[in-house]
Amino acid sequence: MKATIERATLLKGLSHVQSVVERRNTIPILSNVLLEATAEGALRLMATDLDLQINESIAAAVDQAGATTVSAHTLFDIARKLPEGSQVQLSAADGRMTIVAGRARFSLGTLPRDDFPVIAEGELPTKFELPAETLKQVIDKTRFAISTEETRYYLNGIFFHVADDGSTPVLKAAATDGHRLARVTMPRPDGAEGMPDVIVPRKCVAELRKLLDEVDGSVGVSLSSTKIRFDLGQAILTSKLIDGTFPDYSRVIPTGNDKILKIDPKSFMQGVDRVSTIATEKTRAVKMALDRDKITLSVTSPENGTAAEEVPGEYVALPFEIGFNSRYLMDILGQIDGDTVEVHLADAAAPTLIRENDKAQALYVLMPMRV
After folding, report:
1. Among 56, 67, 73, which Cα is nearest to 21's?
2. What Å distances lie between residue 179 and 108, 144, 165, 323, CA to CA?
């Protein structure tokens, strides 16, 4: 193969695909990116970790069509360090790949393209489109709650499922780590009826979110019960789904919490952030004392001392105290866009419901802590 490509174009394409490649691999070919120069004047890049695969097509001047595989991270690092605006010549033959840009010249070892594994998608019967902006919001409002505990692997992703909310068909996305739950509801897109319940893995979510920043318009989603594919124009992301059953999370969403606090999320979050400066790393506990229209946030740390701050808010129920993990609380408050957030409380041991208002697409549940 032989192709010439602008450094900025190559760098952008490689930045997308190389992040799929794991740094440590027992199978050498999985450290490589597949480069395929086509007669139509495109360079196709592909990388995989056997669970997640990305294909991207970028413009190139192709002198000789062909394909090879070369170390993804090495090629990315080279492209990053080449002079801005330079033209990069890539040519591969006899188990080597030569990269020439200006006065710089590199020769890298290659592995044959026939050894490169490809995820077999099979049939993907469910197909629909989502605006890129919607998908971005869904990911941002849920992914912080994805569990990182490998033993509960079925919580290591975002759960998508369709449901009937009253008379309206909806698509719901949820994530939980057992301490907090985030759920977003949106109208069901055309084509999503009959869709199987799926859990999209954390790594796929992270890669998808990065790619969405460069997409205007819609993203095509195709899925079966085992695979999902996102068509983002120049890039296509294909992933295996988590093979497990997501718990029935609706059981933990409280419906009878009658103590309601209405508060400005920004000043609430800043108050929590300030007092939690002295909280211990292990617990990160902040205590909230609620009295009529007066909320006192406090932290007591055996090593560091104490901190307290009053934040203004609307609260008319009986006074009581409750504790939260400050990090978890701030993660949720950071997703609230409006000027007011509703915190629905029951008692110091019951799950707390947090949402902007009853019309909001996003809803959060946070388990309290003993303080």
Report:
1. 73
2. 48, 12, 25, 13
Decide: helix, strand or coil at residue 283: coil
pLDDT tens digits, residue range 125-157?
999 999 999 999 999 999 999 999 999 999 999
Question: Computed from CA positions of residues 175, 323, 344, 347, in that sequence, does the dihedral angle turn out positive or negative?
Answer: positive
Distance in angstroms (rounded) separating the CA atoms of residues 355 and 343 = 7
CA angle 339, 341, 347 (to 5 degrees): 160
In whole angstroms, what separates CA 187 from the centre of its chain?
Answer: 21
Q: How far apart are CA 153 and CA 147, in angstroms?
A: 8
- Distance, CA of 189 to CA of 131 (rounded, Å): 10
pLDDT tens-place string over residues 262-318: 999 999 999 999 999 999 888 899 999 999 999 999 999 988 999 999 999 999 999
Separation of first and last alpha carbons in the chain: 65
